[in-house]
Structures are given as C-alpha cells and as structure tokens.
Amino acid sequence: MLEIGAGFGSLGEILLSDERNECLYVDVDIPPTIQVATYYLASVFGEKAVLDYQAARAMGVVDLADVSRSHKAAMLATWQLPKVVGKVDLFVNFISFQEMEPDVVRNYLSHVGRLGARYVLLRNLREGKAKAKSAKDVGVCDPVLGGMYDSFLARYRLLATNTVPFGYLTVDGFHSELRLYELCVGASSE
C-alpha cells in the first residue's frame, strides 16, 4: 500500500497492526512529516520494521518486493518516488492533494499509475481548496477538482464517489468526498 501525505502514519499503524494484513506500507511525504511518521511507526513496530529515509536515500532503486522481505513499512521523501519500482495494490491520499497545484498532483498520480496501483482511494473537497487572493494568502492558484482526478487517472474507472456516509459537509459548506478508482482491466503500468 502506498500513501502520499500520510501525516504521522496512523493509517499505516492501523493496517500493520492487524496480523491478517500481509502488506508493506509505503509512506511518501515531506521531510519534517516523514521524520515524525518514522519515529511513530518505529515506536509501535520497532526500528527494524521500518525502512527510514536515511537508509532508503542510499538506495539507487527502492524495490518494493525487496523492501517487503525485511520491513513492514518504508518511509520515503517525495523526491524518492521516481526511484520506487514494483507494484502496489492500493494508493491512498486524504486531503493533502487539495493543498497542491494540479500539475503536482498529476505528477504524483503518474507514479501511482506507473506502480500499477489496482485501487486509488482519495478524499478531497468536491469544490476544491479556496483560491489564494494574493501571494501572501493561504490557498492555491488552481484548486484540484474531482474531474481533474478523472483525467489524471485515465487508465482507471471511477467506482464510487460520495459525501455521505463516508465524507461529510464541512461547517463552511464544502463537501468532503471519497473517490474510489479501479485500474481498468487490461490496462498496464506505464
């Protein structure tokens, strides 16, 4: 399983804590956050169970099959994603894509496709993040909207999207929704 923008790794803890889940959890994030997630998951599962950024950065290629033989989790910085090879069953992003510009999200999702993710699960704001009114304001230049995900994931079909029961309506009138995609039959990785 691959997650970009995982925060401190709580989804990794949930998945890896259930012994029925035989999986490798790969967390790709920015340096301060990946360091916190590494500390958190190493505290829960032990340092030997987690491939940290320091060890992974020395690797020319991060082969998921090789990593899964010795670790439960791999913690990678965003710029290491192009070095990752192998297959993932599930890709997850909850909200952090909303804080990025569309070209950045497109790039990340091209790597998700390259890794042949069978399913893609996204949580986003249906209306997109608020636009910044000036360079000093918080916001984005161009919000990422659901239709953009559809075009970025051209080899995938949208299985479901909803706000209720799994999403919610925010107090300021935005719709937090889940979007679930499946790799189309016969589609191969790039």
Provide the low-confidence segments as ranges: none
Q: In the CATH hierarchy, what is the superfamily?
A: Vaccinia Virus protein VP39
State the end-to-end CA separation.
18 Å
CATH architecture verdict = 3-Layer(aba) Sandwich
| Structural class by secondary-structure content | alpha/beta
CATH class: Alpha Beta
Q: Please indicate the count of domains.
A: 1
Strand percentage lies at 25-35%
CATH-derived topology = Rossmann fold
Average pLDDT score: 92
| Number of E-state strands | 11
Q: Give the helices and strands as they follow along the chain.
A: EHEHEHEHEEEHEHEEE
Provide a descriptive summary of the structure in words:
The chain has 190 residues and is α/β, with parallel strands linked by helices. The protein has one domain (2-183): 3-Layer(aba) Sandwich (Rossmann fold). It contains 6 helices and 11 strands. The chain has helices spanning 10-17, 31-45, 53-56, 64-70, 102-114, 146-152, and strands at residues 2-4, 25-29, 50-51, 62-63, 73-77, 84-85, 90-94, 119-125, 156-162, 168-169, 175-183. Strands 1, 2, 3, 5, 7, 8, 9, 10 and 11 form a 9-stranded mixed β-sheet that branches. A two-stranded parallel ribbon has the order 4-6. Strand 10 and strand 11 (175-183) form a beta hairpin.
Describe the structure using short key phrases.
9-stranded mixed β-sheet; Rossmann fold; single chain; alpha/beta; 190 residues; globular; 28% helix; 11 strands; two-stranded parallel sheet
